[in-house]
Amino acid sequence: MFGAVFGDVLMNTSTGVKLNFALVAGLAIAAIMSIQISDASPQSIPTNSFSPSPSFKLAKLSNPWLAFQNATLLRAVMSGDLASAKVALLRGANPNAKDKYGATVLVIASSKSYLDIVQLLLEHNADINGRDPFERNYYYLTPLMAAVEEHHIEMIKLFLSKGAKVNDAPDEGVAALDIAIEKNHADVVKILLQAGADPNHYAVGATPIYSAASTGYTAIVSLLIEYGADINAKAYGSRKTPLEIATLNKHLAVVKLLKQAGAKQ
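Request: output the structure for the sequence above.
Response:
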């Protein structure tokens, strides 16, 4: 849209000073944008905890044209506009652009189940793990975790085939496996375990099998046992075993399964 006018020059008739139209347009665009994006480098960490929203402010980038393209990409991803996302990337948008809460465009596309945009971003070398491991912010999901939360099997398999870190746990040890257990998605649990998910890591003070046993998810407990989960691992806080918490919560099918596997009280 701007290509046809980049060569145009404006003349100030009173001073005779020539103004480059592209520079004026670029600065004007940067001044009025209401979307905050960033490049791949870490930005300042927010001090107030609140949920991500579609409201953004423009980051201080030195190149107004790239700022505009990054903002265009972010808006395209938010709305599922594949065509606009393609144009923005071809014009130099950063495939790892972030919103003000630290969520990359790949995480956003994953959380909205936009598979075509996810594929496009990966083609443009977006970081498949979606965040700086040294940056703590309030949008902790990796792209894989977002896909797991949305129960998007095709996207989950795509990320795993492209080398996504299945055990990445950016917040309190919570990994993709823990999200699948929380959602009671046994099919996703199996996919993640087959891909090397750790069945014995601790997330918020408990192992996956403890979490599954406490909620009575028999099929998931069975899978975790099959893939080597420690059936006697105690939770940090309660100091209870999976069998004890299943008994306490009266999940009799889980109790029976754990006893058959040799679990101890």
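The chain has two domains: 9-44+54-133, 166-265.
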